[in-house]
Write a structure and sequence with these properties.
The chain has about 110 residues and is of the alpha+beta class. The chain has one domain: OB fold (Dihydrolipoamide Acetyltransferase, E2P) (Beta Barrel), CATH 2.40.50. The protein has two helices and six strands, in the order E-E-E-H-E-E-E-H. Strand 1 and strand 2 form a beta hairpin. The protein starts with a strand and ends in a 7-residue tail after the last helix.
Length: about 110
């Protein structure tokens, strides 16, 4: 896997029901000559709330509405962004890793 870290700006966000009836979110990111989405996991219920909170905490943003226009770092490959990070600080959120931990029962204390 050829993972690269790149700078990007969040151009817009989506929070709603996707075509299979599940709640989800997307962050639509633009970099130097590329445009790609982050999110889109089936994240109904507790995982949706946790994931959104982790995005906000990682980027040090107080509300979802403030995300558009925010500069970030991403780590990924051509087909997938694996994690999103604060533009200046070493703060990252890996949605795939979080999903695996959630599925393995780390949500029992919620």
């Amino acid at each position: 896997m050829d993972m690269k870290v790149k700078n990007a700006v969040i151009k817009r966000t989506f929070l709603g029901i996707e075509d299979h009836g599940m709640m989800t979110y997307f962050l639509y990111l633009e970099g130097d000559g590329w445009y790609q989405g982050f999110g889109g996991h089936c994240c109904d219920g507790i995982f949706l709330a946790e994931s959104m909170r982790k995005v906000l905490e990682t980027l040090k943003i107080d509300s979802w509405e403030e995300l558009s226009g925010t500069y970030v770092r991403i780590e990924g490959e051509h087909s997938k962004i694996h994690r999103i990070g604060h533009i200046l600080e070493d703060r990252w959120y890996d949605i795939t890793k979080h999903g695996k931990e959630f599925d393995n029962g780390s949500n029992k204390n919620i």
